[in-house]
Amino acid sequence: MHQALFVCEILLNIFSHVDQSLSSPYCPKSLARKSLAAHAITCKHFHELAMDFLWADLDVIVPLLGCVTRLNPIIYQNSKIYIWSSQDIEPLSEHEARQFLRHTARVRSLHVESSSCKHIHLFANIPIETCVFPSLFSLSFIVAHPHAKYLRLFLSPTLRRCDLSAIHPDFKYIATRFAALERLSIKPSFFNDSMVDDLPLLSNTICLCKQLTTLHCPPLDWAAWRHISNLPTLLTVEISDSRRALHWPLGRDTHNFATFRNLTGLFFYVDTATYTIAVVQHSELPSLQEFVIGVRDLPCAEAEQLCRALSQCKANQNLKRIKIISSCQTVREPPSRVITQFFCFTQLRTLELDFPHCCFNLDNNLLLEAMASWPHISSLILVDKKTVPTVTFRGLFTALLQCPYLLRLDMSIDAVRIDIDPTAEPFRHATLESLNLTWCHVADAEAVARILFSMLPRINEVADSRDPFDTGDDIDIDFLKQWEEVNRHLDILNGREPRSSRFDSD
């Protein structure tokens, strides 16, 4: 054997390459495991390092149970390795527990689902204080709420990443024992009354975490928000709510949070915007680069409060992406000019607004002012199903002069009014490559096609990713048919065979 293979660093690089290259999306994971297993039995010098790689990443705990002499023939009795039942099998003896624990110290990443918890009774004789996985770096514990009580068996003092699907009283054990935890994600697959009772425990536990960089969880109370606002390590926060959590108490007797000095991403997926508005109103967010909210119901008054609160925090110099979407089209009185609240974000690259009246009062002059405020923008999506568009082709192309880097545009305009002659205009927008104007009516499809062909050389079609036959979306089929006619004229102008209609009957 070549002397270079006795150098640990060289072997480490070789096995790392084997593990990564054979675990790519183009190769099944079993190929990497077979190769590493073959290296492990090649010679004693290869054994330990190859075994470390072989056991480092586990999707299930069954292979570890397969190391137990009594269980091995039961688990591997046929090619369908994991289709077996441990229901009537006695717990591991002290000797068998040592066999199970033989390789657990090598495991760095572990995924546990409810199916794995069916075998938990086999560990009944393992002392509760035993650290089963002493070197575990990442744990994904996605189990039903009744199985959450087994969490402690899978915890490790080296844990950095922890993804959970439920909260249990042992949850506080994570923060008190594992101070180095960096990523914590709690995303319940469903929300019930028992989980509402767990929310105070969640907030209290978060207050004990000192090194978090990423946090995904249900709503927190004010004390927890104040704590995480002081964490210099925190980069991303994602809050997911549900209708069952609507009455989670969020007091108003609080002072402003600390600065969230290094927070770059803030995401909310909630039922109403009230909670989000309160958080943003109390935060400075000087480093924020992404703000996203998906909200079921966004009345116009709350939309205006949210946009105003966002504009008044200190994110105007860094915010690059804003996405505000409401799936419920509840409309009361329209706001004044919501879009003006975003003029201060001069570094915007992506702005996506999809809620009722987000384009209220948007005319040629206001669009020009908006585009001039965002010289670096590359994606602009303004979906407003309730406001009649007043921006004309001339207003659109005048505004596009302010955005030389724009790649994607999705909005409504007054496409009936043809107020521009493309043959008399020198303007060409050379970068725009995706265009959707299909929320509005077209009177002269050929004239519209000639305007787009002459002034937007990279646009071959006006595209719409929506499914016109999806009854869940309020799509005007007549509008889509009119823009399909525009696309057929674009096909002709580009020397292609005109496309057939997707609305033609068989």
Account of the protein in words:
- By secondary structure, the chain is an alpha/beta fold.
- Helix content is 30%, strand content 14%.
- The chain is built from 16 helices and 14 strands.
- The chain has helices at 8-21, 29-40, 44-55, 62-65, 72-75, 94-101, 114-117, 171-177, 193-206, 222-229, 274-281, 300-312, 364-373, 393-400, 445-455, 477-493, and strands at 57-58, 109-113, 138-142, 161-164, 183-186, 214-217, 236-240, 265-272, 290-297, 321-328, 350-354, 379-383, 408-410, 434-436.
- α1 packs across α3 and α15 (445-455) crosses α16.
- The model has no long low-confidence stretch (mean pLDDT 84).
Structure characteristics:
elongated; 14-stranded parallel β-sheet; 506 residues; 14% strand; single chain
Q: How many DSSP H or I helices?
A: 16
What is the chains' assembly state? single chain
Instruction: Please count the beta strands (DSSP E, at least 2 residues each).
Output: 14
Q: Compute the separation of the termini in Å.
A: 70 Å
DSSP strand (E) fraction?
5-15%
The class by helix and strand makeup works out as alpha/beta
Sequence stretches where pLDDT stays below 50 over 5 or more residues = none
Shape: elongated
Mean pLDDT: 84
Strand line-up of the largest beta sheet = 1-2-3-4-5-6-7-8-9-10-11-12-13-14
Radius of gyration: 29 Å
The largest β sheet comes out as:
14 strands, parallel
* Helical proportion, percent range: 25-40%
Order of helical and strand elements: HHHEHHHEHEEHEHEHEEHEHEEHEHEEHH
Topology:
Elements: H1 8-21, H2 29-40, H3 44-55, E1 57-58, H4 62-65, H5 72-75, H6 94-101, E2 109-113, H7 114-117, E3 138-142, E4 161-164, H8 171-177, E5 183-186, H9 193-206, E6 214-217, H10 222-229, E7 236-240, E8 265-272, H11 274-281, E9 290-297, H12 300-312, E10 321-328, E11 350-354, H13 364-373, E12 379-383, H14 393-400, E13 408-410, E14 434-436, H15 445-455, H16 477-493
Parallel strand pairs: 1-2, 2-3, 3-4, 4-5, 5-6, 6-7, 7-8, 8-9, 9-10, 10-11, 11-12, 12-13, 13-14
Helix pairs in contact: 1-2, 1-3, 2-3, 8-9, 11-12, 13-14, 15-16
